[in-house]
Each structure stands twice: as C-alpha cells, then as structure tokens.
Amino acid sequence: MSANVVELKTQEEMLHAYPVMHELRTHLSEKEYLDLLEKMVPQGYRMFALYVNGNIVAVTGIIELVNFYNSRHIYVYDLVAKQSERSKGYGKELLTYIHEFAKETGCSYVALSSGLQRLDAHRFYEEKMNYDKTSFAFVHTLDH
C-alpha cells in the first residue's frame, strides 16, 4: 500500500476531492463547492488529501488563524474519510499530518468543531486523537 498526503492547490485538484468532501458536505453541489472555494482560498483555506494507491481516501480543509483564546493555531474546517474506506486509520493519518504541519508552522494548537449528531467523530477526536472538548459552538441564523 502506497499512502501519501498531498496539498491540493489547483481548482482541478480540489474538484477531484469533491466526491469525498461531498460525503461530509452533502448540501453542496459541485458548483456551490467550487464557488465557495473561490472565496475561501484567498482567505487562507488550504486542502490536503490522503492518497492510497493513487486514490483519494480522506480529505481535510484547514486555515491558520490567530485569536485571543488559541493564539496561533490551525483550525480544521473539514475532515472526512471516504465511506468505503472508514475505520482503516486514514482519518487519524491525515489529522496526524495536520498536527505535524501545525508544529512546523509554529502553531500552538489544532482546533475544530464537530456537529452534535456526529457521535462517532466525537469519540474519534477524544479517544483516538486526544482532543479536549473545550466549548460549545453556537450559530444564529439571520432572517433575509
């Protein structure tokens, strides 16, 4: 098995990751995905994929941020392993890569949020990846 993590830099590379990302972001059409990427990349969004034998098996989207509570850190917006490839350690391998990337770039933390319904993901973050649950995230939908 040949596995490696690659930063996806071009629109074509990121489009190749869409089927895997769509498993997490099911509400996004391919066009919406590309339209949002066009806005997110200039803000610092970066995407990495774990390839196994030439195929994308997991994808993550990150940004480097600085704020009062986490100082300089990497925020993980997206982390998903392809449904048919789950429970093979690919999510752990990709997130471990991001931890190393964060260290190399001088970050103090890696932070993320996870939907309340994603109990398996919560177990993964807490039990396998040693994340601490430090807060609740709140969202207020605005009327248009």
Fold and architecture overview:
This protein is of the alpha+beta class and 144 residues long. The protein has a single domain (3-128), classed as Aminopeptidase (3-Layer(aba) Sandwich), CATH 3.40.630. It has helices at 11-16, 18-24, 30-40, 90-104, 119-128; strands spanning 3-8, 46-52, 55-67, 71-81, 109-112. Strand 2 (46-52) and strand 3 form a beta hairpin. The longest helix has 15 residues, at 90-104. 20% of the residues are buried. The mean pLDDT is 95.
Write the topology of this structure.
Blueprint: E1 3-8, H1 11-16, H2 18-24, H3 30-40, E2 46-52, E3 55-67, E4 71-81, H4 90-104, E5 109-112, H5 119-128
Parallel strand pairs: 4-5
Antiparallel strand pairs: 1-2, 2-3, 3-4
Q: How far is it from the N-terminal to the C-terminal residue, by CA?
A: 50 Å
Rg over CA atoms: 15 Å
Uncertain segments are none
Any idea of the CATH topology? Answer: Aminopeptidase
Tell me, what's the shape? globular
Count of separate DSSP helical elements: 5
Q: What share of the residues does DSSP label as strand, in percent?
A: 25-35%
Largest sheet: 5 strands, mixed
The structural class is alpha+beta
